[in-house]
Amino acid sequence: MLEEMKKRVYEANMDLPRYNLVKFTWGNVSEIDREKGLFVIKPSGVDYDKLKPEDMVVVDLEGNVVEGKYKPSSDTPTHVELYKAFEKIGGIVHTHSTWATSFAQAGKDIICYGTTHADSIYGTIPCSRNLTKEEIESAYELNTGKVIIETFKDRDYVATPAVLCKNHGSFAWGENAKKAVYNAVVLEEVAKMAVLTKIINNEVEEAPKSIQDKHYNRKHGKNAYYGNKVEV
Amino acid sequence: MLEEMKKRVYEANMDLPRYNLVKFTWGNVSEIDREKGLFVIKPSGVDYDKLKPEDMVVVDLEGNVVEGKYKPSSDTPTHVELYKAFEKIGGIVHTHSTWATSFAQAGKDIICYGTTHADSIYGTIPCSRNLTKEEIESAYELNTGKVIIETFKDRDYVATPAVLCKNHGSFAWGENAKKAVYNAVVLEEVAKMAVLTKIINNEVEEAPKSIQDKHYNRKHGKNAYYGNKVEV
Amino acid sequence: MLEEMKKRVYEANMDLPRYNLVKFTWGNVSEIDREKGLFVIKPSGVDYDKLKPEDMVVVDLEGNVVEGKYKPSSDTPTHVELYKAFEKIGGIVHTHSTWATSFAQAGKDIICYGTTHADSIYGTIPCSRNLTKEEIESAYELNTGKVIIETFKDRDYVATPAVLCKNHGSFAWGENAKKAVYNAVVLEEVAKMAVLTKIINNEVEEAPKSIQDKHYNRKHGKNAYYGNKVEV
Amino acid sequence: MLEEMKKRVYEANMDLPRYNLVKFTWGNVSEIDREKGLFVIKPSGVDYDKLKPEDMVVVDLEGNVVEGKYKPSSDTPTHVELYKAFEKIGGIVHTHSTWATSFAQAGKDIICYGTTHADSIYGTIPCSRNLTKEEIESAYELNTGKVIIETFKDRDYVATPAVLCKNHGSFAWGENAKKAVYNAVVLEEVAKMAVLTKIINNEVEEAPKSIQDKHYNRKHGKNAYYGNKVEV
């Protein structure tokens, strides 16, 4: 069932330690088949060096396991909420990558200071509000998803495919699992650069809107002219 | 004697350079057999690239070498004190990992700013007091153990399995050698994140108690629901 | 056509991830044949792990593709402008390397604080002005080149072979592609050291002119005495 | 001639990129045969990936090349001065390692904040004064040596085997080439920790003398009890 997708999701999960985004099992990637209404996600708490494509778990949009010998990631209810609300996305990744997580712990948005950010993520990467005690104690992972969705109620989740979860970590997404991981790498790198930029110049302001627009649009949308027709 | 444990302790010691927690011989891991009252520890000052499982040293709870061609780690008396006082632990690791050691040198506790910390270590990671001149000059390594124990007199050493030794380095522990090393990796990562978090937001406060409790409890205790029944 | 140069440019491009100057496809290197008036450059947006020497694109000094199955790097018009204005250079590299890019985002020059910098790059590494909205919207990459040239109107581009592009990234150059990458490595390292130097001593001033001159001149010019006659 | 020493010096030079202390050719190691009054040093400006044991250059204590097809390191006169003044040392290393060099650029000593430092280097690691314009322009590398010696006129160069050269880089030394590199690794690590320690606690003070003495003496001198009789 969804064997090709399992391989892709497996590879995307293995990219997390490759790109130095996770230690141990501290991350998970999923990808959805919109027609079937099913997504494939990493099992919970299995070491990366033991993980195999066939260990991936198939889950439906109510969070039920449809196939798989393992329990799915404990963050599965967050993935469910995001897939239901963000209908144009095809893949989701959660990590505790060092610099992005430090922004999440600090409770600060990541301002766009340059084109490395603007090339892939449009505008400020928001940090969500804290969950309330009730939200945490009732259905924590589901409510994590709801608070992310709330954070994007006046934002374009396609143009800004990443969020910081207060005191926790980050989620990023994209048209498929691989692109979601790509965005998580961008997120971590621009988080690091944002810290360094502020250290170098404490008075620094957001990059001018015109250069943000230029770089985002030369890679995205109908007038994009960056890249060749080879796979991302 | 204790051949399987020697292999495990050897592997756990080799994990220290793998996880970038030590340079040269600046660390040591041990594991205890509670029934026999014996523990296995790395020899003192032997290069990691020359270390073999059979080089591990067997020591009793009075610090006597029971088997082994080498002297045990010079920190052996600290391990003895900790095994005697912390009866529920099965493995201990000592490192000079960069970020945790910087907290130890700064004489500051590591506050819990997020779930990366709360997932594995409950609450603040304490920094011990300085040893007195007398404690240093009489039985330094033994007194290092005693001061750690004093630091935990009103703390739960199972829930908070790590400590910073003032001006020195860190000790972490767990149910076995491997889990102790896991906790040392967590310690180093949350130390790094804590520095970055404060740089990003100098006014940052401890994460809310509710999210700390949630993350710690979803991985520990009788209501834990994280992970699958595969080895950690 | 230019097969040897394609191999060199390919190798120089592959050095970017090797020296940790780029992630994904975020960089490009070119080298020029001054007699033929043609340069070889990386194709746009092709993954480094799929790149082959024969994928390199040959471009003339009006920016026309002379040979190649792929589109050249989207930054090609910047390379064209620099080759036309800086007649003594033979290779150009563009990256978003972390520390140099953070200076570019901060809009700050990199002061020469020591001999690591002075050995390879004479004096301050300038940060260009922002492009105007009009410059961005009309011919962005060409105007990026023009603004770099403007930044060097009172500077010696041979002695100072690097520039920071405001809110963007960096360009470095040299007598060939390999030397351009060498200078990009120096740029990234001295950017990192400059941040750390200021953290250690916020009052620090530029290194004395005499030591800057000494180190630059012992490696460059007719009285150079550093190195052996083996290839750089 | 001195074939075994050439191999050791070659290996010690290759350790510089292995321990991430240098980029390109920015470092050099030498070792001396005190009976013969000759030392072996890396050739100048030869890439590490092309270096071979037989490329090492043999030099006498007046700085004359006794054997070798290449010019010796341009820093050879500094090595000569140090070997002549510091009669108990057997190996010297020069690097531009990132964190130590940042202290040199900042013109600040490295205070001893903990046992990682005290285990190998006794007390403060001094930063030398600037060379005068005359010292730079006449015999720069020789005067670099003289200024280091001046920096140690009231210090014990055996107990404190490292120095920061203002606006430049560092030298470290030891009983042989390998031990000199070991001390250079320690220097870089304690430089990094010292920066982080100050960031964590801006009021931090030097570690108590008693713990510095304890750690230094448990590894050095006639009452040392650290380590086993296997090679360092």
Automatic annotation (TrEMBL), chains A, B, C, D:
GO terms, biological process: pentose catabolic process
GO cellular component, one term: cytosol
Entry keyword annotation includes Transport: no
Cross-referenced Pfam families: Aldolase_II
Domain Class II aldolase/adducin N-terminal: 7-195
Keyword Isomerase tagged: yes
EC number in record: 5.1.3.4
InterPro entries with a match to the protein in the record: Aldolase_class_II_sugar_metab (IPR050197), Aldolase_II/adducin_N (IPR001303), Aldolase_II/adducin_N_sf (IPR036409)
Reaction catalyzed: L-ribulose 5-phosphate = D-xylulose 5-phosphate
A GO term for molecular function: metal ion binding
Keywords: Carbohydrate metabolism, Isomerase, Metal-binding, Zinc
Major enzyme class: isomerase
Cofactor(s) demanded: Zn(2+)
Family of the protein in this entry: Belongs to the aldolase class II family. AraD/FucA subfamily.
Stated name of the protein: L-ribulose-5-phosphate 4-epimerase
Taxon lineage: Bacteria, Fusobacteriati, Fusobacteriota, Fusobacteriia, Fusobacteriales
